[in-house]
Design goal:
two-stranded antiparallel sheet; homodimer; alpha/beta; 5 helices
Chain lengths: ~190, ~190
């Protein structure tokens, strides 16, 4: 097990309905030393990639992306979630359907901060069905920018998001891939 | 002028209605090197304070707090904004009235991550009327924790939030206090 898998094993809580709670260190309370390790690991895995911008999505991706960005010396842009269609100024907009919340949201990024010269690393905390991630990829395509890679903290390997993204040929590096969880025993099985 | 005031002067855009746009470096695209300078400056100003936790609020406070936290070696907790009353589990809840958006929101923090032993530094990007900040202070009080200080990037000195907080005796360190702005000339006047 790597450092993140160990931490999930130690502090993650499995709940009914394939819910994995990691709010004590990842997405409510945030362990910045852990985030640094994650940044260092992504830098290793994307060592040969030419990355000049990091894109994430509010809210829980922001902290991870900001800490990780120090290893890439690149500014971070976070996409905003919006229910409204009245967006001021020139924005890239992607419609994102959330399976979890059974609703449609817009994901928006100002055109000022993403363009054809950008080589982008996407960073987020979770990948499950991949709806948010698809929205971010769509926005990068609208901008004429390049997706250099995708860094995810925890991928739910039993949901389709990661498979779809890999099938599409994107370079996806998930630091922990959960293949199964058992709410009764608390057991978490990681992909080798 | 300090480093943040200089950056606001250079890249901030004044809009009608006392709006200061700093989305190119602070709250949409984020300059992590600048955030480090801010963290270093807060560490200097709060050098004698005994801080073991940083509290911020989604979304634009998170990046600043996570980068700044490295200077305090403390975990970060971010308060979530919620319109819903159906919150799972044990949460501290504060009602926050937003003057800007003319609505009431809830600000919530899990009881697991804030308690009587915590000495908290609050960090946020903006202070105007101070509604969000009052909610965070209320949550810290509910937890029986101690507010050691408040670090704000940009305070709108012509709105009442900062004055109220200082009158209440809190130690508030705003890195840039804007006393006036002129949308026509673009002029920004900082408090000495």
């Amino acid at each position: 097990m790597n450092f993140l898998e160990e931490r999930i094993q130690k502090d993650g809580i499995v709940k009914e309905g394939n819910v994995l709670k990691v709010d004590s260190f990842l997405n409510h309370q945030m362990d910045i030393e852990l985030f640094k390790q994650m940044g260092e690991e992504w830098k290793k895995r994307f060592a040969d990639a030419n990355i000049n911008k990091i894109l994430t999505i509010e809210a829980s991706g922001i902290g991870i992306a900001c800490v990780a960005s120090d290893y890439f010396k690149a500014p971070v842009v976070f996409a905003k979630k919006s229910k409204s269609i009245n967006i001021e100024g020139d924005m890239y907009i992607a419609e994102v359907e959330s399976f979890t919340h059974k609703c449609k949201n817009q994901v928006i990024v100002s055109k000022k901060f993403l363009g054809p010269d950008d080589h982008v690393l996407i960073i987020d905390d979770f990948l499950a069905n991949g709806c948010a991630l698809q929205g971010l990829i769509s926005i990068i395509a609208q901008a004429g920018a390049t997706v250099e890679g995708i860094g995810i903290a925890i991928e739910k390997g039993f949901q389709s998001g990661g498979r779809v993204i890999r099938n599409l040929g994107y370079r996806l590096e998930s630091l922990a891939i959960v293949d199964s969880m058992d709410a009764e025993t608390g057991q978490i099985t990681f992909r080798q």
